[in-house]
Design a protein that fits this description.
By secondary structure, this protein is an alpha+beta fold. Helix content is 25%, strand content 28%. The strands form two sheets. The protein has a six-stranded mixed β-sheet, with helices on both faces. Helix 1 packs antiparallel against helix 2 (31-40). The structure holds coenzyme A.
Length: 165
């Protein structure tokens, strides 16, 4: 089951992110802190959990992002996390699909992210020419435009993404 987070999910969301990113090669193990900083800032626009047998096993976050000179209507996907013993069963994909569906229903213009194209291309994400993110190789900066074309320029994350451990 995919559903929005509630106040009772906070600890489970933290544990899910910690467990999922523990051995991730590019992670600084701050994903749980980023989610909490976004929540504290009122910037966690969409926060969904995946529940199996009443246990939270997955989580996805969306915040607002500026892309180039477009300051409204674009969102940032991430982090997305599934606990190791439930990975590879379609839960991460279900979280992404549910989040994108919610964004579309809100009239969003599009969604950007920094991530592995091998995972995200299946949802329609691709590298948009001229879209960059400071310090990230261009092929990992991905966009999905819902309305017209993607804006060009830099994807700017919410300041919560700069949190340190
Ligand atoms: C990435 C993640 C959320 C995917 O969730 P999941 O439930 O395992 O994914 P699904 O079962 O829906 O999809 C599995 C598919 O994605 C692929 N996949 C999973 N993680 C991937 C990754 N990091 N890079 C590329 N492909 C990936 C699998 O090979 C599988 O492909 P297939 O359908 O062709 O067999 C999960 O593996 C996870 O939490 N990983 C650690 C944290 C992480 O890397 N988050 C994303 C950071 S950008």
């Amino acid at each position: 089951m995919i559903r929005p987070e509630t106040g009772r999910d906070v600890a489970a969301i933290r544990e899910t992110n910690v467990a999922a990113f523990l051995h991730h090669p590019f992670s600084q193990q701050t994903e749980h802190l980023i989610v909490e900083a976004l929540r504290d800032a009122g910037a966690l626009e969409i926060s969904l959990v995946a529940e199996v047998d009443e246990r939270v096993v997955g989580h996805i976050a969306f915040s607002r992002a500026a892309v180039g000179d477009t300051s409204a209507g674009w969102y940032l996907l991430g982090p997305v996390a599934v606990v190791p013993d439930h990975q590879g069963r379609g839960i991460g994909s279900a979280l992404v699909e549910a989040g994108l569906s919610e964004l579309r229903s809100r009239g969003a213009l599009g969604c950007a992210l920094v991530g592995d194209p091998d995972f995200y291309e299946r949802f329609g994400f691709s590298h948009c020419q001229g879209t960059t993110c400071h310090g990230v190789p261009e092929e990992y900066v991905l966009c999905l435009a819902f309305a017209s074309h993607a804006p060009t320029g830099e994807v700017v994350h919410h300041p919560a993404f700069s949190v340190t451990a």
